[in-house]
Write a structure and sequence with these properties.
Blueprint lengths: L2 E5 L8 H11 L3 E7 L11 H10 L4 E6 L7 H7 L3 E5 L6 H10 L3 E6 L17 E5 L14 H14 L5 E5 L7 H6 L4 E4 L1 H4 L4 H12 L3
Parallel strand pairs: 1-2, 1-8, 2-3, 3-4, 4-5, 5-6, 6-7, 7-8
Helix pairs in contact: 1-8, 2-3
Length: about 220
């Protein structure tokens, strides 16, 4: 099943609860929440206290993406705040297997994120430990960037590895996804599509999400 995750990084934070309710009513399957520390990526966003408040109003799963150094120190905080999926970066996780195991122990679905330049091989032997792999299709740190087409090859490579080893993890992609490229991304093997400005910068969320979902599975 193909899923659409609305990235709140592009939402109006002065009326965040209303924005969440609007994308839920419009048909979003998940909420994608970007956590940035100003060190691993050049921006600061939100932390556990805000996610805890989001959890109280959200009716769909929270897909929390940690773009932070030393994520192991705060995994408990993000799981308590209400994450359903929790992604840590290969590039920022020197003990990746330990991090993933701890996330699972905490009752949350573990996910691994890769920057655009990072090869699939960097995950080593941990694919059987994850519920999802998040492929960044922009350089992380800011919303509204342009899609990097070369990442499509990584999605296909990952899908082939999943099929070859009979695994069941989801393949997620985040960055620059719009109505005019989501069909191509879907064909590359992606299961979960993170869309921020492609939803929140449009006037009619319901029409936008309906178009995105139609283009995920073109007839």
């Amino acid at each position: 099943m193909k899923l659409l995750a609305a990235s709140i990084l592009s939402a109006d934070f002065t009326r965040l609860a209303d924005e969440i309710a609007a994308v839920e009513a419009a048909g979003a399957d998940w909420l994608h929440i970007d956590v940035m520390d100003g060190h691993f990526v050049p921006n600061l966003t939100i932390g556990p206290p805000v996610i805890e408040k989001i959890k109280k109003v959200a009716k769909i799963p929270l897909d929390v993406h940690l773009m932070i150094h030393h994520a192991d120190l705060s995994l408990e905080d993000y799981t308590r705040a209400g994450a359903d999926f929790l992604s840590v970066h290969v590039e920022a996780s020197p003990h990746l297997h330990r991090s993933l195991s701890r996330i699972r122990e905490l009752g949350v679905k573990p996910s691994v994120a890769l920057n655009p330049h990072t090869p699939v091989e960097s995950m080593g032997y941990i694919l059987s430990e994850v519920e999802m792999v998040l492929l960044m299709s922009v350089n992380p740190g800011f919303g509204g960037q342009s899609f990097i087409p070369a990442v499509l090859k990584k999605a296909t490579e990952l899908k082939n590895l999943r099929d070859e080893h009979k695994l069941s993890f989801k393949i997620e992609m985040d960055g620059g996804i719009k109505a005019d490229n989501i069909s191509q991304i879907s064909q590359a093997g992606v299961d979960v599509f993170v869309v921020g400005s492609g939803i929140f910068q449009t006037k009619d969320y319901k029409t936008t999400i309906s178009t995105l979902k139609k283009n995920i599975n073109p007839q």
